[in-house]
Amino acid sequence: MTNGEKFLFLTSSFLLGCILAKNNSKKTVIKHNPTINQYLNRLKEFFDSENIDRIEDEFLNLVDFGINPNAAFDAVTWDGDLN
After folding, report:
1. Domain tally for the chain?
2. pLDDT, tens digit, for every residue of 6-23?
3. Of 18-22, 32-36, 38-42, 75-79, where does mean pLDDT reach its minimum?
4. Does one domain contain both 44 and 60?
5. Which of 33, 35, 66, 73 is 20 to 30 A from 20, comparing alpha carbons?
6. Residue 82 lies in a domain
7. 13 and 41 assigned to the same domain
8. Residues 6+ apart with CB under 8 A from 39
9. Do 45 and 69 have their domain in common?
């Protein structure tokens, strides 16, 4: 095998490895969306026991209305004061 053939082989192998690594990395990225119950549990971190029922009802009303749970969570935790 000549030097040119070795260089071509090594370059081809390197490029093939890069392409395969890039394709595999796209497949392994999995994003899990939290469930409604997980959002409800997170609300307990933001609000005290006096307000939690009202805040949970507001969150569930927004979700029932058709708003994305993430956006509904952001809406009810934005200020924390829904008086």
Report:
1. 2
2. 777 777 777 777 676 766
3. 18-22
4. yes
5. 33
6. no
7. no
8. 59, 69, 72, 73
9. yes
Q: Please indicate, yes or no, whether residues 70 and 41 belong to a single structural domain of this protein.
A: yes
What is the DSSP track for 37-51?
HHHHHHHHHHS-TTT
Q: How far apart are CA 50 and CA 61, in angstroms?
A: 19
DSSP state of 33: P
- For 60, the domain range is 36-77
Whether 40 and 73 map to the same domain: the answer is: yes
Phi-psi domain of 67 (left: phi exceeds 0; alpha: psi -120 through 50; beta: other): beta
Cβ proximity of 43 and 55 under 8 Å = yes
Q: What is the mean pLDDT of residues 62-83?
A: 82
Question: How far, CA to CA in Å, does 40 sit from each of 44, 78, 81?
Answer: 7, 15, 17
pTM listed for this prediction? 0.57
